[in-house]
Specification:
Elements: H1 3-14, H2 20-32, H3 34-55, H4 61-69, H5 81-88, H6 92-115, H7 122-135, H8 146-156, E1 173-183, E2 186-195, E3 200-206, E4 217-221, E5 226-233, E6 236-243, E7 246-252, H9 256-266
Antiparallel strand pairs: 1-2, 2-3, 3-7, 4-5, 5-6, 6-7
Length: about 270
């Protein structure tokens, strides 16, 4: 066996992937070739260092499961490790010096990617909160009076701003309760309306139009000179608009046309 042939098989030898015949042949070569034997020893040492480095990295079970199931990291149909090893073996002597660093980067970056907190989107959070309210998985105190809901929510923020206390009685909807949410360090006042039709949740917070969903459609009301941003997900509709420094988001399963008409009728120009 020549040295170039042996060096192509050293990785498979260390990984115990050779047939009995190939193993016998390369081991015989290593006994008589100090150069290839040294390469093989380096390979084994590299494997030990990688195992030690891997053992020092610990992650919760749910994080490991999230990484392994994330198709952005491990796409479906990706080639198996054996296929990749077969492709890399011919160039292995050249790639060896950078292999350890590359492998560690590939191991660490997905973990860091999933651990770095992403900026929470208030409009998306509003959709999720509305879903939980409708399902009954979020509890709130029912007060039965729109004025009481408004006063309680204002007190929770020291009167710095007020919820959009809309009167929706013409739509057979009444304010039945409220809650305060914290999203990304910002305070959201949530008023909940229930009645004969689909329930509606109104979110009020201090913000700008930059808080609108990037994928939202924009409707400009020339009379009130207000932009209305419409957005839907999983059958739930959302209308976002700004009045001065205050943002209002209406979320409901009512038809988008009706929800937009409602937001336009209640909005007050700055």
């Amino acid at each position: 066996m020549r040295c170039d042939e042996a060096q192509e098989l050293i990785t498979a030898l260390v990984d115990n992937e050779l047939s009995h015949r190939e193993r016998s042949s390369i081991e015989s070569h290593l006994k008589d070739c100090p150069k290839c034997r040294s390469i093989c020893e380096q390979e084994r040492a590299l494997r030990r260092e990688i195992r030690i480095a891997g053992a020092s990295v610990s992650a919760p079970a749910d994080l490991r499961e999230k990484i392994l199931s994330d198709r952005r990291i491990f796409p479906e149909g990706a080639k198996s490790p054996k296929v990749w090893k077969g492709l890399l073996r011919p160039a292995w002597p050249v790639l060896r010096p950078a292999f350890a660093l590359t492998l560690l980067v590939l191991l660490v970056l997905p973990i860091l990617y999933l651990l770095i907190p992403t900026k929470q989107s208030i409009p998306l959070s509003a959709l999720e909160t509305h879903r939980k309210i409708v399902e009954g998985t979020i509890s709130f105190v029912k007060v039965g009076s729109q004025q009481v809901v408004k006063e309680q929510l204002m007190r929770s923020v020291g009167g710095s701003f007020a919820p959009m206390g809309y009167d929706l009685s013409m739509m057979s909807l009444q304010a039945v309760g409220g809650m305060v949410q914290e999203v990304g360090g910002r305070t959201i006042l949530v008023a909940i309306y229930e009645g004969k039709g689909p329930s509606l949740t109104c979110y009020t917070f201090l913000g700008t139009e930059e808080d609108a969903p990037a994928e939202a459609s924009v409707f400009f009301d020339p009379e009130k000179k207000i932009n209305f941003y419409t957005f839907s997900r999983a059958g739930v509709n959302e209308v976002f608009h700004r009045e001065g420094k205050v943002i209002c988001i209406l979320v409901s399963k009512m038809p988008m046309g009706d929800l937009l008409a409602l937001a336009r009728s209640k909005a007050q120009p700055s």
